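Justification of resources, computational component.

The compute hours requested in this renewal are based largely on the per-chain cost of generating structure records like the one below. Each record pairs the submitted sequence with a full structure-token output. That output is archived, and it is also reused by downstream analysis tasks.
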Amino acid sequence: MLSRSLWAGMTRQSRPSASIFCAILADAMQTRDLSHRALIWLGVAAVVLLALGFRTTIRGDGVGYYAYLPALVASRTFDMAPTFNRFLAAGTPVYPENLQHHLANGLTANYKPVGAALLALPFYGLTHLVMLALPGTQDPVLGEEYQLSFTLASLFYLSIALLLIYRLVRELFGSWPAALAVAAVVFATPLVVYTLFEPAYYHTFALFTITAYAVLVYRTHGRRRMSQWFAAGILGGLATIIHVNEVLFLALIPLESAWLIARGHWSSRLIGGYAAFAGGALLAGLPQLVTDQVIYGRWLPAAAPNITFDFTHPHLLELLASTHNGWLSWSPIVAIAVLGLPLVVRRLGWFAGALIVIGLGELVLNAALSDWWGGVGFGARRLTDQSLLLALGLGGVFAWLSARLRSRVPATVAGVFMAWNAVLVAQFYYVLPTGATPSWPDFLVGNQLRALAYVPRLFIQGTVIRDLASGDWAAAIGVWLALIAGIAAATWLAIGRRWSLPAKPLRPLPHAVDT
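The structure output for this chain reads:
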């Protein structure tokens, strides 16, 4: 449980944190048509959802992403075996074979990249310092405070990413379509599972770096300073060492250059910027290079032994339409987002085109993987990094619907897809056998009907509600306040005027409404 002294310190900060949260939430929305009462209810809903659904425990692939922190910070070793063994001994749900590859140098392989741990380092490091100052014996591997630090980092970075996405979509299509688009991207796609139930996976960390990188590249187009080139390289490099597939997003810069060349706007003065970008990317990738050199004796990352590429026989159709985690079959709202892409291209030009090219490239890359279905996971989880593109497409569709029909229509559309996805999550956890490929009738009807009875269970998965049920009110309130403070800090950072870049002028969408 959370220590009493740690909880007491958090309690003293509860009232300021709550007031800051309400203020920055209102500022972030900046919509004249939403009442203060609606904003209050929105904040209350978010806080309640954290209590009911957010799990702060680490399991599955999350063990590999997290393991670098207790090994390097607490034990000062690159040997993952002690950390892995603790999780295995505790009976943590995990794929044990990936935690037991012993190398000739005596170390144990960790096939997960180091990037997520690097982003979570400030959270884990601060927790470690606080826990060292408290009396008693601390557990830097399985301790609930330490696991909370990693999952809180996940929530923090996801919150920033979603706010950045919201602001960009709002500039294009208005606040109401933007709010619906962000909600749909979270709750009608696999992202909801890796937001609430499996936050220790890489997806939220990757979405943050990709979104921050892409938004920075877009907003500084044509007037990028050397420091911004370098910052873009840092963010792009971090994305790559969070998950190797994200290397595709580095193509934003070459695609931008190709557009400049085609328009006759390219200049040799950009070469210095390219050098700064490359320097930033290499600097961000250095921790992974060092880690691979120490553990494997090589400068390039080692792939997990059970994963290979075959670009001559990609599983494109299966990746899109299989009942075994197909992108469209498990997240049909993706098809709606695709319908809005022409509007996005019209508004964003080269930037939208580049995102689409990268998205198509990632489809091919994932289809070429031997485990194109993403292992034991919910839906096409590796494509959650396309959330920015999906939100833009959905924003366009929702704005179009709002302009021609009642504003409740896009809300109804989003709500239907979110409700379907909630039942699908229940099917995944409680009905569908692990690794199964159900028939279409079972997937769409039979399993979904059986899953309806399990939907309420999704709202008792959160650490807060479970601590409350067990009678540990101090731990429950402490975790709850930590989660609220994390979102408040992320919101303040995302909307802080010191860090914001001026929006690009955009022509208004014909007949668009902001409701």
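The longest helix spans residues 144-173. The radius of gyration is 23 Å.
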